[in-house]
Design a protein that fits this description.
Layout: H1 6-13, E1 19-22, E2 35-38, H2 41-47, E3 54-60, H3 68-82, E4 83-94, H4 112-118, E5 123-135, E6 141-152
Parallel strand pairs: 1-2, 3-4
Antiparallel strand pairs: 4-6, 5-6
Length: 154
């Protein structure tokens, strides 16, 4: 989800119209210009009327929380239908569990080819797979295995 809204705020600050989705309530610091949806992403995708057209969709550290089948059949389908031609999809996810692993395992892992194979006709603007040390949201030091893919819909 949108988490604390830092990325939504950054995009809005650049002039983008932003819809942020997260289970949590809207943080107090979020601009009123950001449309904040307090919802589970799966529920939002299932209930969305699909008549909106998006210029960009940003999935940061969310894909690994979904079962692979749902990601492919529902989320990716939503993206393919609702992203405008020449729209941009940016994905950051894990290609394997961090070290040390989280107490609750993720539901799926995606390497760069997994993502690229689902969007074969799209233009790859940035593709990277790397290891990174850092702190998680709880402050625990971990070694992360990150997939970053940015694609343009053709």
């Amino acid at each position: 989800g949108a988490g604390d809204g830092i990325h939504a705020s950054a995009l809005e600050g650049l002039g983008a119209r932003v819809i942020a989705i997260d289970k949590r309530a809207r943080p107090a610091h979020i601009s009123p210009r950001i449309e904040w949806e307090s919802a589970d992403i799966k529920d939002w995708i299932e209930s969305e009327d699909h008549k909106r057209a998006y210029d960009a969709i940003f999935l940061k550290n969310t894909l690994q929380f979904f079962e692979r089948e749902w990601g492919i059949k529902r989320l990716f389908k939503f993206i393919k239908v609702n992203l405008k031609p020449d729209g941009v999809l940016a994905v950051e996810t894990f290609y394997k569990p961090p070290e040390p692993p989280f107490d609750k395992p993720h539901l799926s892992y995606w390497n760069k080819n997994d993502v690229l194979n689902e969007f074969q006709a799209w233009e790859a603007l940035h593709v990277n797979q790397a290891e990174k040390d850092g702190r998680d949201l709880n402050g625990t030091q971990r070694h992360f295995f990150i997939t970053d893919v940015i694609l343009r819909k053709k």
